[in-house]
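Write out this protein's structure.
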Amino acid sequence: MSRFHPENHSVHRVGWLRAAVLGANDGLISTASLIVGVASAGAGTSNILIAGTAGLFAGAMAMAAGEYVSVSSQSDTEQADLDRERMELIEQPEFELEELAQIYVGRGVEKATAYEVARQLMEKDALAAHAREELGISEITTARPLQAALTSAASFAVGAAMPLAVVFLSPPQALVYAEIVSTLVFLAVLGALGARAGGAGLLKPAIRVTFWGAVAMGITALVGRMFGAVL
């Protein structure tokens, strides 16, 4: 009797996970950098909150629109390739069988076995077989524009809400330092959570996200201080 052992893979999460991590990371870094820059320029708490809130909504909408357009372009390209492949299967079925079989031969399958596998797969679903093996398109990796847009917008808003909360909780004279320290902590946690959701190691992603967040906030704080001194 055959027995199967359970396997937990994370590749099926790649579509929404990429959008979620990107959105939350962008929301956290951009809003925190905006708050640090405005605060460094000498703005009051009310103006900082207005700027941060505007950044949250504008950023979330921009992320949604950008992801939708970008992933839609990917989806259009995939559909065009599938339409082309569908026509080739109708017009040149023998050539397509040969092409699929040669893919398996190139992977080390014996020639006779490769042709038999290709024949059986094409009998079941020729387009799906060629989409997966020739084009690299599968149910897991296919583009989903709406999912990417909604995930990016929601995760951006969540990420942006964190530095805004610090504005409420921190005394004005210590706001810049509190924002920087708390955001670096948030970024480290976010990097670790994203890595864990994707099944990767925790340390390297956390350090990578924290480092680039620190660079972004440092540059924005410097610019804010420069403009604050001029104005």
